[in-house]
Specification:
The protein is an alpha+beta fold and 287 residues long. The protein is built from 8 helices and 12 strands.
Length: 287
């Protein structure tokens, strides 16, 4: 059996020339790749770290069948893969000496690649997180709403945004980019919103990705631990969801950690409905 014809590049434009239409064909399933490539397009190859991103495309009979990308130090991201495609991707990357700290994608694809990577490299594989992708259906604003209002963050809010971004990434146990750079990027396109109390004190935030291929993803949503349980997260999530839809988004999406029943129940009360399950695996190289 001949290896699958995977094409690899570090050039975003070349990747999108080949895979852009494919990614836009399933904007919900490909929301991560769409938002990541848009961030790199806007902010450059250093948007997620010091190492440049890498991209790959599987083409068969003149059509794109699958794609991957990685922005180190984050895990590899893959689109849907059949088992044999996952194995061919593992062979492709291992043959290039590629270092993958993990993989994320739709549940079956991520599991298939994790199994193939373990077989090809001997890495130890562990499931880090089970996620569920939700899509907004009919928005239901939580009642009663907490006192206060929503407000889009501006340049004067940069220190607060950066602080909360650091706290969020620490809480979820994921690597984060430079907090100041993250805050600057969100402020630049109005991509972060506070819920603030009547006296103007921010008590929660919700971010949104830029609209691309008709979809917007809500991320992150954060309330400091001492302020939780007061309805702030639900209020600010409902507000950014409404604003995204009013701005013309066809799909408003978000991910949850399936290990957190509180957030899963909250977003369903607001009007989000399940689309599909995703998974993230970590890879470790033995001694």
């Amino acid at each position: 059996m001949h290896p699958e014809p995977w094409y690899r590049t570090a050039d975003l434009d070349r990747f999108l020339d080949r895979a852009g239409d494919f990614l836009r064909s399933r904007p919900a399933a490909h929301t991560v790749m769409l938002s990541v490539t848009e961030a790199v397009r806007r902010r450059g190859a250093g948007a997620y770290g010091d190492e440049p991103p890498v991209y790959g495309v599987l083409e068969r009979d003149g059509a794109v069948r699958a794609a991957y990308l990685q922005t180190p130090p984050y895990p590899l991201q893959v689109t849907a893969l059949a088992a044999e495609e996952a194995d061919s991707l593992a062979a492709h990357l291992a043959g290039l000496g590629h270092r993958a700290p993990g993989v994320g994608g739709e549940r079956e694809a991520a599991a298939a690649f994790a199994t193939a990577w373990q077989s090809r490299t001997g890495a130890t594989v562990s499931l880090r997180e089970r996620q569920r992708l939700y899509r907004l259906d009919t928005l239901t604003v939580p009642e009663p709403a907490p006192a206060g209002r929503a407000r889009i963050a501006t340049a004067s809010d940069r220190p607060q945004l950066a602080k909360w971004y650091d706290e969020f990434t620490e809480a979820v146990g994921e690597p984060g980019i430079d907090a100041g750079s993250w805050a600057d990027a969100r402020i630049a396109y109005g991509g972060a919103t506070f819920w603030e109390t009547p006296d103007g004190t921010p008590v929660a935030m919700a971010g949104v990705t830029p609209q691309i291929a008709g979809q917007v993803r809500v991320a992150p949503v954060y309330t400091p631990a001492e302020l939780r349980g007061r309805g702030y997260a639900g209020a600010v999530t409902a507000e950014v969801s409404r604003a995204a839809r009013d701005a013309g988004a066809d799909e408003v999406l978000l991910f949850t950690d399936l290990a957190n029943p509180t957030s899963n129940a909250l977003y369903q009360r607001i009007g989000y409905r399940p689309v599909s399950d995703f998974a993230v695996y970590d890879f470790a190289v033995g001694d």
